[in-house]
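As a representative case, the lines below give one protein's residues and fold tokens.
***
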Amino acid sequence: MGNRPGVRILDELTLEEYAMLAVGERDGYLDEVLDEYGRRLRWALTGDPAQPSRLDEPARIALIARFVPVLVGLVGRNWIETRETYSGRWHDTSAMSADDLTIALRDPANWLPPPGTRQRGLTITTTACWAAVRQAAEAGRRISPVEQHTTGSA
């Protein structure tokens, strides 16, 4: 980043971060992330955003280790919040601690639960900070590193 006063956030996101944020923006479950990533890979290859993911289970399992630091990083930037929602109701829970999140992310069943089930119901959502960063970025305004972590925070 050098001496630049800020960065063009949307241009610098990785495909993994885009997938995670896309699922978070619709208040989705962690187990949706790998298919979102696979769909975005197909989109990049074909130019067709309607292409479904073609990642098979071994490919998805291999990707888990790659996505753990992505989610931890987005949580650390205050762009994503993760909760464990056994009841399916977001407001019945609180944000997961860093330790609990790290343990949960190491369990492949949270990324790839058996068909028709969700092991722990790990949900992800974007934060007010991410919404403010995205809005500023879409308006063409550069975002300083400090703003990236605090914009929209109470």
